[in-house]
């Protein structure tokens, strides 16, 4: 039982690192696209303020929420596997 908990904790740590790497990558690519859009449209004003306003909308998007599946799917798979192995 302790080995299972250790494996689950290790998986959680690895998934946390993977989650943050994906989050940083997605945010940086989105920010870069917004900066290019600002420049391409020839918009006037404070670019950083406009990008930050757009990033607030991005933080509420479906893509960011789906990123939580990085945790949910593997942990559920481990839990189901543990249950099925011990149920028999």
Provide a descriptive summary of the structure in words.
With 88 residues, the chain is mainly α. The protein contains four helices and no strands. The longest helix has 39 residues.
Total helices: the number is 4
The shape, in one word, is rod-shaped
Helicity, as a percent range: over 70%
Label the structural class.
mainly alpha
What average pLDDT do the residues reach? 90
Strand elements, count = 0
SSE order in H/E notation?
HHHH
Span from first to last CA?
A: 16 Å
Q: Main sheet, how many strands, which sense, barrel?
A: none
β content, as a range? under 5%
Low-confidence stretches: none
> Over the alpha carbons, how many angstroms does the gyration radius reach?
20 Å
Annotation keywords:
4 helices; 88 residues
Chain-wise SSE layout:
Elements: H1 2-40, H2 47-59, H3 62-66, H4 69-87
Helix pairs in contact: 1-2, 1-4
């Amino acid at each position: 039982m302790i080995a299972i908990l250790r494996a689950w904790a290790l998986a959680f740590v690895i998934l946390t690192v993977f989650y943050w790497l994906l989050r940083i990558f997605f945010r940086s690519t989105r920010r870069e696209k917004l900066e290019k859009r600002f420049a391409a449209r020839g918009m006037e004003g404070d670019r950083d303020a406009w990008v930050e306003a757009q990033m607030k909308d991005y933080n509420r998007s479906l893509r960011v929420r789906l990123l939580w599946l990085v945790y949910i799917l593997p942990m559920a798979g481990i839990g189901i596997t543990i249950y099925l192995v011990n149920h028999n």
